[in-house]
Amino acid sequence: MPLPAWAQDTSQIDLARSAGPAERLGQPRRFEVRGHRLRLGAEDVMMLGGTRVTTPERTWLDLCGVRQLTMDDVIVAGEHLVSEHERGFHPRTAVVTLAQLRAYVGGKRRVPGLGRARIALELLAVGADSPQETRIRLMLERAGLPPFKPNCVVVDPWGKVLWVDLGNARYRVAIEYDGEHHLEPEQQLWDRSRNRRTVAAGWAQVILTREDLVRGEAHIVSRVVAALTAQGWR
Question: Which of 6, 210, 212, 219 is the most exposed place for a label (fewest CB within 10 A)?
Fold first, then answer.
């Protein structure tokens, strides 16, 4: 799951000991280990390479209990787990479906982060391909703009289907986040073709890059507002 840079420290391993009534030992204490005591059921644990680890669902729930992570951070991580789509290129299968994640969290009681997980679940969308797409969508939602759908379908004038990163079909506004791989010559050729076909279909396009994210939320919202207004939104 994608996390902020500060949370990607691999110099320490998170190691948990059972917190059940039979366990009277404290949390693990050893070099390069962050120790925990957790109450874990069979549904919380899986085997990975011969090692018992927490499931994706439980790991996400535990992240919701990390105070240093923002609500956007845990939504980004959650949308990475539930993302799935069947488009013609790079189809994606969910690690955990949104329904499965909801059922898992719904069956939990008295777990740190549970309250925030319940709130985050109501804000998750299915289909995002990158953390940046999720963060942009959340910015627009906070600003009260019309909803944007990840991996939104656009049909060009020749009847061919395109998938845009974020789209509002009512006002026909498409948002593309072009990361570093969009600087590659082959990708740029594809992007130019995509852009022409999207505009020919009557959609307004907002192309965002890392520089736009650096300029901040107000800047991104203003660009999308301008596109929506040009397409008839008031």
Answer: 6
Q: Which phi and psi (to 5°) does residue 232 adopt?
A: 105, 0
pLDDT digits (tens, 9 = 90+) for 136-145: 999 999 999 9
User: Read out DSSP for 91-154?
Assistant: -B--SS-HHHHHHHHHT--S-TTHHHHHHHHTT--S---SHHHHHHHHHHHHTTPPP-EEEEEE
User: Which two structure tokens, joined as six digits, stand for 13?
Assistant: 């391993």
pLDDT digits (tens, 9 = 90+) for 158-192: 999 999 999 999 999 999 998 765 566 676 777 78
**DSSP conformational letter for 207:** E
Domain membership of residue 189 as a residue range = 131-230
Nearest of 232, 220, 218, 162 to residue 194 by alpha carbon: 162
Q: Which residue has the higher pLDDT, 24 or 127?
A: 127
Is residue 126 situated within a structural domain?
Answer: no
pTM of the model: 0.90
Helix residue ranges per DSSP H, the chain: 56-64, 71-82, 98-106, 114-121, 131-142, 185-200, 210-215, 217-230
**What CA–CA distance (Å, rounded) separates 134 from 170?**
20
- The phi, psi pair for 122, rounded to 5°, reads -70, -15
